[in-house]
Design goal:
About 50% of the residues lie in helices and about 15% in strands. By secondary structure, it is of the alpha/beta class. Strands 6-5-4-7-8-12-11 form a seven-stranded mixed beta sheet, sandwiched between helices. A hairpin with a 7-residue loop joins β11 and β12.
Amino acid sequence: MADQAARQLLRQVSMGAMATYVVGAATKLGLADVIGDRVCSTETVAEAYGVPAERMVRLLRALAALGLCVEESAGQFGLTEAGSFLRTDHPESAHALVRMFTDPIMLHAWADLDTSVRTGKPAFDAVFGKPFFGHLADRPEMSALFNASMSQATRAVAAFVPDHFDFGRFRTIADIGGGDGTLLAAILNAHPQPRGILFDTAEGSAQAVATLAPMQGRCSIVVGDFFETAPAGVDCYVLKSVIHDWNDEQAGRILQHCRAAVPADGVLVVIEPVLPDLVEPGTSPGLYLSDMNMLVNLGGRERTRAEFAKLFADNGFELIETIALPPEIGFSVLVATPNG
C-alpha cells in the first residue's frame, strides 16, 4: 500500500504541467463565466463555443477531477468554490492571475529549468530573446494582464498588511514598484495621515491612475526606474514582491537607492514570503515552486530570514523585525532601518 501511494504521488507530480494546461485552456475559454452560478449541461457549454458536446465533456471532467467543477449528474456541471474564482465577475476573481501564470510567457522557459540550475541565469532571456520585463514592455496587452494578475495577487496581502504594521506614524510612504497601487491604496485608506507616492515604470504603473483616484490630493504617481533612483522626501519605503524578482546584486542596487534617500529616522518595509530554514514534511510546495519560477524567468529567488538579513546588512539596512501575516496569506513584513 505504501509503495502504491508513493507511485501515485510521483505520477501526480509528473503530470502537474498537464493540469496547468487544462486550467489554462479553461481560463482562456472563459468556461467559468459560461457556467456561472448554475448547473450547466455539457450541451449548453459546448454550444457557447460551437464545439461537439463529446469533446467539451472531456475538458469539463478533467476540471472536475482537478476540483474546479463538479459533475452533479451525468453531463451536468457546476463550479466548485475554487472554480468560481475563475469567473471574471467574482469579487475576488483570480482570473487574470491564473490566465497569466498558465500563459506560455510564464511556462515556456521552464523547459530549460535545468539550464538555469546549472548556470544561475534566467532561461527566459535565451528563450524569448530579452529579459521578462523587457518582453512585457513590447506587448501592452500582456503587460496589462500581468499588472492585473499582480493586483489580484496583492489583494489578500493588502487586506492584512495595514492592520499588522503601523504606517500611520510616517509622513510619506513610497510604494516602490507598486504596480497599479492596490497595496498603497489599502495602506492610505487604513491610515489617513500619511501621503503616498506610487513609484514604478510607465508600464508597471499604467493602471494606477484608476486605482488611486480616490486618494487624489494625498497620493502622486512618479514614473521611474528603481535600478536608477528612489524618490526623496520619504520616511517609509515599501517594496512588496519586488526583491524576490532579482538576484542579490540587482536587489542590492534597489536597496542602495532607498538607503541613499532614506532619512535617519526612516524605515524600509519589505513584504515577501520568507522561506523556512528547513522543509518540513507536508510543507506546501508553492513557495518552492515560486523560487524556481523566479530563477527560470527572472533570475531572482525567494529567501530565508537570514538571507534577507544579510542582503539588508550588505546594503545599508538592519533587519529589526519580522511580522508574519496569517499562514493562508503566505507573506511576512520585514522591517529594516538604516545602519551606520
